């Protein structure tokens, strides 16, 4: 198994020194193009042929520092992700996560993994909702984490990478398709966060779970979500998965859901499944959502109790 870090800190340093009209091309060439296969699979254009059209840079700028803003003003944040110790911790998180599966007899069809850490934009509403940390690991072989370095996000870096590694493993076994359901997404996010806490502890739960109290889960999220697990299409799925506030930012119709409702619900659903069946989290990760949902029908009608 080969795990390669794209050392974003070195790339940021180079772009800081560049002339303003060179920054975009350098960012595309060095930071974005190594992930070209990922963009192609996701059908995200590398360059839009229309002014202000959707492409990898527009997507980057939703959460991360835009190429034009990579100036000496980011030096303090950059210093936080520039140490060898930081990258060693990131490498260990990915290596430990993937090895947890292979050590438990789960074969991985992907043998090479590329990851990087991007500096988040403190003015990004979607990143602010996530308390300054996020990740992207749905395409096997590629992992990107985003953070605004601080005392809250830095300790959660390994846990976030473990979460994304779990997605990487699941989608080597579960075939992604455009008709993916809300149920699959809820299960997937619950598995990823349950895997992360199995390695790094519940005290490092991501904000997408920790910010939801049990009363909200039991009285708002579960009653409204339980009959929607069949829906498809991101315009239908995202409001349930991410909540109304982000739905509005994405121009989707709100459905009365709080922040990261699907993530919080998924986490507690998977905890229920693991406790009920005794299935190891590694095996659960490659289990179809239909199997997990069939085993957890009672979850939707029982009050979830959770004490940390």
TrEMBL record:
Example GO BP = proteolysis
List the Gene Ontology MF annotations in alphabetical order. peptidase activity
Identify the keywords attached in UniProt to this record, alphabetized: Hydrolase, Protease
Task: Domain (DUF2268): give its ranges.
Answer: 86-293
Q: Which InterPro entries match?
A: DUF2268 (IPR018728)
| Name of the molecule in the record | Zn-dependent protease
Read off the lineage from the record.
Bacteria, Bacillati, Bacillota, Bacilli, Bacillales
